[in-house]
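During the reporting period the student researcher (J.K.) took over the structure-prediction task from the postdoctoral fellow and processed the backlog of single-chain submissions. One of the processed entries is reproduced below for the supervisory committee.
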Amino acid sequence: MARVTLRELAEAVSGVVEGCGDVVITGAASVSDAGPGDIVLAESRRYLAQAEKCGASAVVSAEGPCGDKPVVRVEDPRRAFVEILRILAPQEKPLKPGVDPVCRVGERLSAGEGVSIGYGSWIGDDVEIGRGSVIHPLVYLGDGVRIGEGTVIHPRVVIYSRCELGSRVTVHAGTVIGSDGFGYIPVGEELQKVPQIGTVVIEDDVEIGSNVTIDRAKTGATRIGRGTKIDNLVQIAHNVKTGESCIIVAQVGLAGSSVLGNGVTVGGQAGTKDHVTVGDGAIVAARGGVFGDVPAGATYSGYPARPHKDQLRAHAALLRLPDTQRKVEELQKEVEQLKDRLAQLGGERVESKSD
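J.K. obtained the following structure tokens:
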């Protein structure tokens, strides 16, 4: 368990302590479950009032005071709290540099200084692993895989042959990179597989969650841009290309040859049709289904996805549908009554003329 004084935390985040700086901090928590030794984040005056009543020992905030609790005053509390979490995070026992004796290592492995390869991993021929990278136990690296410096591959990851990962990439457990793209053509009554001879390129500073699948390209490369963050259970099909610093949330599916610009956000369970382009800085909201190109900077939602304001209006109209239906039924009854009345009036006029 980490133990650090509040004064030391304040120095680490360029903050100022108001109150006792000798308080020992052992963890971080939300205001709803904080206890002694915890530090909590209060982003606004409203949260500051909640923090004052909770059991935490200290608070990070841009404001103060907070009752009798000491406060670390900073300009950007959220960013400071992230750094505090990093300081307090439990540290996993690192793998020792070198290759575990219970590994299969192919021919011509090129491993930089300080590389660690854990128990039971399979390393193919002609693999390159950059300085300081960590290959956890039970990882499969196919022939010709290239990995940059400072990259971490967690257990049970499978990286097929000829795939490339940059530096400072993190791949979490169970992910598969470089399996065949889904390509078939009908030949008579059968489906014939289209060979997938391309590769996958993961650029620097990408983080990939657990149980993600990234298919190799039919030709060329499926490419994940620098700094992109991919959540768990995402499917990225062959020849997809993402720009830099994209955010792809859990259970997203990107169909073949989709293109994401820089800084795109795709919400949970959203998906794209093949060959669509989502422009720089655009947002596809959760469960959105993209069937056509999305302009740069736009926010799309719904199925099929459309501009978010249009989707909200359509959804509002849908919620009013039962009431609208009731009013239409009432109007239909009134129309029928009017028809009957007009028919009666017509009959009365005919009788008066015959008299």
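The committee noted the following: The chain has three domains: 4-88, 98-310, 321-355.
J.K. will present the remaining backlog at the next meeting.
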